[in-house]
Amino acid sequence: PPPRRVLLLGEGNFSFAAALCGAQGTHVVATCYESEEEAAGRGGAARSIRRLRDSGAEVVFSVDCTKLKEYFLPGKREFDRIYFNFPHCGRKAGVVKNRELLARFFHSCAEVLAEEGEVHVALCNGQGGTPADQPRREWHNSWQIVAVAAGAGFILSDVHPFKAETIHGYKCTGYRSQDKSFCVEGALNHIFTRSTAPVCFTPVSCKTQLGSQKVSFQVPQVLVDKIDRGFLEVNSSHPVRTIKEKLSAGLSQAFPLQSINSGLPLLHQGHPDGVCHSSVFWITPSPEEAPSTEETSQRLANAALFSHFGQDTDKNVQGGCPVPKLFYLRPSLLPHAQAIIKKGAFPPGTLHVLSGPVFRKCRITPHSMPVFHEMLVVLAVGRGTESSCIQMLVENIKTTVSSLHQGVSGVKPSISLQEATGFGTELNDFAAFECQLGEIQHFLCMGTEPDPSGSCVGVIRTAPDELKSSELVVVSASLNLDLLAMLLCGISDWRMLWTPDRRFLGQFPEGELRLFKSFSLYPPSFQHDVSFWVPDGEEFDEVAFHTLARRVSGETVLSIQLRDSFQQPGTGRRSLCYRVTFQSCDRALGCREAAEMQLRFREEIQQHLGVTLR
């Protein structure tokens, strides 16, 4: 392979560069801000410069770190690593000027860094403003290095102590080699990498068959980057597929098993029984002649095929063609299991396993997902034996999950089956929605450190009347594979499961489950408040409010909190104030981009929710 190109900036006496120049497979380009005459006059600098040149390294003088591409020809601009040790504007420059220096430096790095290159910045203890600094300065009194780097498209991927004593011959100098050197005790080396680009939400249209008619529908914008990811396919190494396969293998040891992974339509028709209408993604199909902005792959089109509808289809006319209306993206696989049961293709004793993504509107929290992968297992058993079958089913699942968790972290998790009546733990969004789909007998909860109390990852149901048989009862278990993946692999934010960044799947080679290590450390967060008057006589739809925030921000809103509710005396008008926190878990998000999103969000809620901004 070609030698790794390393660029060193702001060298004082060139002792750091001299220590690196002998590394095998490395070509060093050492630079400083001063002229050669100024630099060579420092103690030890001339000797280090000679050593660098003798070893084949390049030494360049009068280099401004904020205009790097001006000093290198186009073919020589791609550096694998860029080092900048203890940058400083000089003299008594305050934190604001040094932030500005870093901001211009990172923008300059973006023009000369290789695609998978790294930028190393060493700072004195406390300057960076991250939790790695001990003690940590107040945010406003730090250089805010992660936030300024984000503005240029970089994320902090690692941070570790800067051990000057381990660098042979290195001697730290002060600003422009003043006698007073920088204090390197407790100094930290911050390693930045390129972030993936913001998701481009180009409208996506999906073609499908409704009865005898070909139609298309536009995918809701919040799902454009999630509708066709193929996480459960055979060639996938995603953790949700690994967990699904491990659970299926365990269940097959206790029951005859039949998997149904394809042919499950994405669209449901009519009104979902018992489900709040604001919790589903409604779809309006159009005749195929309608122009589509972009077609999805054939895989998605096949997955959305509908073989037939009921006789009471409600129709409207668009473009001279009648098409069914009142469709929505499937929020659960349960109706598909019920359809299989009604067709009679459901032999008793055989465990049927259905799996696929389901779609639900929900509020924004780290564990609330508008799309996740459901694994639904369904079994017909003899009446009176359902309790023992549930116990066998749950014990099998618990054994598999415990084995997986111990293999990943070496710790046995807390897994419990809790009665639905008198359930003591607050329901998470997954469990709360499941309650709308039908009566639940048990919740399956899993707890790990630091929350051993447990989060609901599955629900157990029995349906005595489903088979219209006096002898058989249907037992089903619905599992949230995404929540299981988060708990097993130590993933704190559901959004990371859907990141396009290849570094995520790179941590799970060939589907091996491991503890996840974030490649974006201490991402900056930005808070904005929005207050408005609610339309008179209307109930404010918080789920729609959160869904708009998801759409505008591209899932970079971390949380939305109600800060104040005010009712105006006399008129009775109601005002609400929410705090919106923007933070990305996997890509660079700068303050300017967050502010622009907030402005768009204000416009969207005014247009779509009918509120009056204050």
Number of helices: 14
Contiguous low-pLDDT stretches (5 residues minimum) are 290-324
CATH superfamily of the largest domain: Bira Bifunctional Protein, Domain 2
Quickly give the structural class: alpha+beta
- What's the architecture of the largest domain, going by CATH? 2-Layer Sandwich
Question: What does the model show?
Answer:
The protein has 614 residues and is α+β, with helices and mostly antiparallel strands. It has 3 domains: 4-194, Rossmann fold (3-Layer(aba) Sandwich), CATH 3.40.50; 205-287 and 323-511, 2-Layer Sandwich (BirA Bifunctional Protein, domain 2), CATH 3.30.930; 526-613, Ferrodoxin-fold anticodon-binding domain (Alpha-Beta Plaits), CATH 3.30.70.380. It contains 14 helices and 26 strands. It has helices at 15-20, 36-40, 45-54, 95-109, 145-150, 239-252, 298-303, 334-342, 386-409, 429-437, 481-489, 502-505, 542-553, 591-608, and strands at 4-9, 26-31, 58-60, 79-85, 113-123, 154-161, 188-194, 205-210, 213-218, 257-260, 267-269, 282-283, 286-287, 315-318, 321-324, 327-329, 351-359, 371-382, 414-419, 442-448, 451-463, 472-480, 526-533, 557-567, 574-582, 612-613. A 7-stranded mixed β-sheet has the order 3-2-1-4-5-7-6. It has a 7-stranded mixed β-sheet with strand order 10-17-18-22-21-20-19, with helices on both faces. Strands 24-25-23-26 form a 4-stranded antiparallel β-sheet. Strand 24 and strand 25 (574-582) form a beta hairpin. The model is unreliable at 290-324 (pLDDT under 50). Keywords: Aminoacyl-tRNA synthetase, ATP-binding, Ligase, Mitochondrion, Nucleotide-binding, Protein biosynthesis, Transit peptide.
